[in-house]
Amino acid sequence: MDTSPTALFDSYEQDFKQFIETIREKLEGDENQDGEQRKASLRRVEMELDEADEMVSQMDIEIQGIPQSIRPQYQNRLKSAKADLSRFKKTFKDLSAQLARSSLLASSTPRPGYSSDDPYGSSSDRSRLLAGTALLEDGTKRLQDSQRLALETEDLGADILSNLRVQREQIENSRSTLEMANNSIARASNKLTSMIRRMYQQRFVTGAIIAILIFLIIIVVWSKLS
Question: In what ranges is there compositional bias, type Low complexity (predicted)?
Answer without folding.
Answer: 103-124
